[in-house]
Amino acid sequence: MVSINIVWAYPDFLNLHGDRGNLMALERIAKQMGLEVKVHRVSELGADLGLDSADLVMLNAGQWCDLSQVAQALRAGGIEQYVAGGGSVFASGTSWALLGAELVDEDGRRTPATGLADFRTTLEYPIYGDDLIVETRSDLEFIGGQRLVGSQIALTWAQVPPQDALGVATYGRGNGDVANSRVGLGATAVAGSQDGIALGACAGQPGGAVIGTNLLGPVLAKNPWFTRSLVELALARREKAFTAQPSEELEAQIQRMEQSAQIISHFNDTKASLPDPH
Amino acid sequence: MIRPRFLAALWAGKLTRVAVNLIDKKRGTNLPGAVALRVDPQFMRRVSGVSAEKVIATTGTNGKSTSNNMIVHVLRAAGYRVASNLEGANMVGGVATALVDNSSMGGKLQADWLCLEVDERSLGAVSRALPIGTLAVTNIQKDQVQRNGEPDYILQKIRRSLVTPEADSATGTSRTNAATDGTAPAHQPTAPAVSTPAPSSPNHVASTPLLVLNDDEPNSRSLVTTGLPTLFYGVDENSRSQRHISPYAVTMPCAACGRGRIEFDYQNISNIGPFRCSVCGFGSRQADSVRLTRVDFDKATFTADSHTFPMPYTQSFFTYSYALTVALAKHLGITPQVTAQALGNFVNVAGRTETLTYAGKTIHYLRIKQENPDTLQSAFNAIAAAPGDSKTLILGLCELTDFQPFYTNTFYVYDTEVGVLTEGGVTETICFSKHVAIDTAAAMENCGYPASATKVLPTDEVADVLEAIRQSPNDEIFLITWLGWYSQMQAEIERRKH
Questions:
Q1: Considering only alpha carbons, which residue of chain A is nearest residue B185?
Q2: Which of A153, A155, A278 has the most B C-beta neighbours within 10 Å, making it the best mutation to test the interface with B?
Q3: Whole-number average pLDDT of chain A
Q4: Does residue B169 contact residue B159 with C-beta atoms inside 8 Å?
Q5: CA B87 to CA A30: how far, in whole Å?
Q6: Cβ within 8 Å, pair A64-B150
Q7: Distance in Å, alpha carbon of B377 to nearest chain A alpha carbon
Q8: Which residues pair with B407 in a beta bridge?
Q9: Are residues A162 and A276 in contact, defined by beta-carbon separation less than 8 angstroms?
Q10: Residues contacting residue B166 through CB under 8 Å, at least 6 positions apart
């Protein structure tokens, strides 16, 4: 049986918005696909990440104030070599900032992130909470051309070249950057904004995939079609030959969450007309 | 110019109170205070007879209303005159209202104590206007993420409210992602507050309070690093303490050092229980504290400092309100006998539960806070602990519509342990909401609740939910949803009776 080895990195530091649900969904779906699922939980900063045998490292959303230490631990744990060797990383919520080069505080102080990608993430206030709907780039292998639905609690903004973004936000703020100008806070539907990042995720590209998104939900629970594709992508990057077994349960789950996504999309299309209680 | 404006504000506030009482005396409001502040923005600072030793503020994520109400009740039982914002208006307007209502026509506070429940985001503004002598903190947990983002955001807000303007500008308190080379802690404690009260200056407020901290809650306990004098309270292990660790259990980073993770010996309520940091050793029971021991939910009693107290409210989250109150009462020199008598006849107006009957069923309503996994978990635990082994849970989480942009967050469900529901006899769960019923049901199933026992009701219509209740095979129905929707159901049930 083919196995997928998941590193659940620092869950006590990175579980801000029910994000352990990402692991719950990932495990469940991977098993439904016919995989043996091995989860290596790494609790302490500085503990061995077990990257030699890992296929996918999960970085769930964490507090901004904790990110620099997590980044340092990931660098020290060999995350760069891991990706170069074909291992994939998935980061969600504020933690996708870990994938970049630097973290920039409100006062301009810069600390290093993992350096897996070349972008900077800047902390800003006020907090912006809203739904987020993303269309992933069509050129991405397995995960391309998909609609992803979730929410966003935005404390940051980051400028990522469009060709490196995970996709376009068809609703919501995304990375908070539109055409090199920072999106005004408090904006509602900000179509055209980028979301996240996706590197090494196109056919023929070497190394592992580095995927980050602002989406919360948890994103892998709300979008099981994406989760299935993410698993396939991670295995492909490790050159593990695998064909998913048919699963009625998974198909039913996908159908149900697609229905939910439709309802939520409609809600976001119409909510601006609803009276604000204040 | 100051005095006439202040008096105008005060009297305008009092007139507003008269008008509000004519409409509905029982209705909670912050209107008198809001009017007073509109007339004189410095109104609160100018009320005389307010000194730090008289002011007790209670803040935190969960339990501040109950705790403040309990403290007020005990102080009154001890013979003191107490001014308070009992009605739960806990922002600046509500605090100002308490001052309007309890001041003489000349603007002097007519009370021995000013006990205030203060919203954690408003604490800074309140502490700039009033000298807080005692600050009780219940807990700092995940809550209303659309407003608060992260618990650290609230923790830093509270820390900043404890620093005088002088100390603040000297040390800098900007929220930074401090680089670490592994030797220095990432989370730098703020400088200890400077104790220099200058009551004659309208621009100066020094908040150098005695802190009353939850010994079992890591974030609030980390406020001990401010260096301010501190009392601790906590609750020992009892029949409802949880030691079982699910493979998905997560805790939090240590707010004292930032390098370690919190490990709980056990949890009395969600994410609250004796703990220790895996790296720096920061934790519970490192200083004297008043702890509830021998908590007996059947006898409805607990023991503290060898005295036995009645505990009429036996839901687990109440134990920490009791502990806080007993600790503070002891510090204030109130005898255990007086405290015990008061706790025995305390009525919690800030309650989160109500009961209705419909179609031969009993509907138990449990109110939770939005985007707050810990109150949701408390509700789940309360349902599990209720008598019976055939219960129905009606879960209507709904989209968040407090302010635009409205959004569909249900992710806090994933921070709960739903296993307690099946263990506690919940044989059926109906998730209702026009927009997020499917999401909620999926969350329950992903967290381990059986899909076969879950139903989706994609509606907000009260009639549809009442029909589902009528058709339920169970007679004990537990409803978790927002207060507004519950009020509509309550009204509809009443209408159908007549």
A1: A69
A2: A153
A3: 92
A4: no
A5: 51
A6: yes
A7: 13
A8: B400
A9: no
A10: B194, B196
**Contact criterion met (CB < 8 Å) for A274 and B406:** yes
Cα gap B388→B35, rounded to integer Å: 50
Beta-bridge partners for A211: A90, A198
Question: For residue B252, what are the CA distances in angstroms to A12, A16, B156, B218, B277?
Answer: 5, 9, 16, 9, 10
Report chain A residues whose CB lies below 8 A from the CB of B248: 20, 23-24
Of A19, A107, A131, the CB nearest to B176: A107
Per-residue pLDDT band at A127 (split at 50, 70, 90): confident
Cβ within 8 Å of residue B250, ≥6 positions away:
A11, A12, A15, A20
- Residues of B with Cβ-Cβ distance to A95 under 8 angstroms: none
Query: How many other CB atoms are found less than 10 A from the CB of residue A41?
Result: 17
| Segment B151-162 mean pLDDT | 91
Q: Identify the band that residue B1 occupies on the pLDDT scale cut at 50, 70 and 90.
A: low
Rounded to whole angstroms, the Cα distance separating B374 from B317 reads 10
CB A31 within 8 A of CB A37: yes
Instruction: Mark yes or no for CB contact A15/B153 under 8 Å.
Output: no
Distance from the Cα of B248 to chain A's closest Cα (Å) equals 7
> E strand or H helix at A167, and its extent?
strand A167-171
Residue B184: per-residue pLDDT: 30
Q: Which of B314, B248, B338, B327 is nearest to B287 (CA)?
A: B327
Determine, for residues B442 and A257 on separate chains, whether the beta-carbon distance falls below 8 Å. Answer: yes
Q: Tell me what pLDDT residue A179 has.
A: 44
Please answer yes or no on whether B407 and A131 come within 8 Å at the CB atom: yes
Over residues B66-104, the pLDDT tens digits come to 999 999 999 999 999 999 997 668 899 999 999 999 999
Whether pLDDT at B186 is above 60: no
Tokens (6 digits) for B14: 């009092």
Percent pLDDT > 90 in chain A is 80
**Residues of chain B positioned with their CB less than 8 A from the CB of A67:** 177
**B496/B498 Cα distance (integer angstroms):** 5
Nearest residue to B219 via CA among B192, B255, B251:
B255
Instruction: Tell me A101's DSSP state.
Output: S
Bridge partner residues of A149 (DSSP)? A133
Cα angle for residues B395, B387, B250 (degrees, 5° grid): 55
Query: For A15, which of B176, B250, B405 is closest by C-beta distance?
Result: B250
The mean predicted confidence, pLDDT, of chain B is 88
Q: Do B414 and A21 touch (CB under 8 A)?
A: yes
| Neighbouring C-alpha atoms within 13 Å toward the C-beta of B79 | 5
